[in-house]
Amino acid sequence: MDPIIFTPRLKLTPLTKVGRGSPELEWLHELHSNEKTTWWSIYGRAKSIKDTEKVMRGYLPTKEGEENTYRVAYAVHKVLEPMSGSVEGEPQPGQQGAKSTEFVGLVTLKSLDADSLALPEDLTIPAAAATTTLTVELAYMFLPTGWGKGYATESVEAAFESCKRARSFWIPFSKLYVRAIVNERNPASLRVMDKTGMTKRGVYDWTGNAIFLAGEWRERDSLHIFGMHLLE
What we know:
Elements: E1 5-6, E2 10-14, H1 23-32, H2 49-56, E3 71-79, E4 90-91, E5 101-111, E6 133-142, H3 151-165, E7 175-183, H4 187-195, E8 199-213, E9 216-231
Parallel strand pairs: 6-7
Antiparallel strand pairs: 1-2, 1-4, 2-3, 3-5, 5-6, 7-9, 8-9
Helix pairs in contact: 1-2
């Protein structure tokens, strides 16, 4: 994957190792401990560093050599100084990393695992395609200071382009399919899906054990399912 991605307004930095006392952990804890940012997160708001570390273990890249696991996590920073000559979604020369920035959010892509929501075949790819097509799930979170500015759309599109350039990263799979699950009561994320070109596959009526989400306990929800092939 690209080491660092610059868009005209943003800097996307891949996260690999995040240790105690690191700036990366400070960024992620600021994100996961914010009530507004985590409003639509099934993991809720982190009340301690340990809570943040527990959540981030679910999306940070795992140890090298661990099979059947593909994870990409980008920290998103707003560039505080104008950048000239940058091409949206393209990796940029290292010297641009010196630009003054402000952390605003996170974009992750991870292959499905035992904790992923199982969807009926009409809302995803055919089961027969799974041998050659890897499915990853998109997720993102942004601090309130980054809301309403198009940062989510801009960073997701840049991450998608990086995935397309990194064919070797997905070996042995030759095709890559990304899915996203959005609660019907989250109109902001529904708009992001439209703007990034994701195709709406349908609505999944979820029922299950009660979870605390968006300020209330829920045992059922209507989830909008989106998907798109990044590599075909």
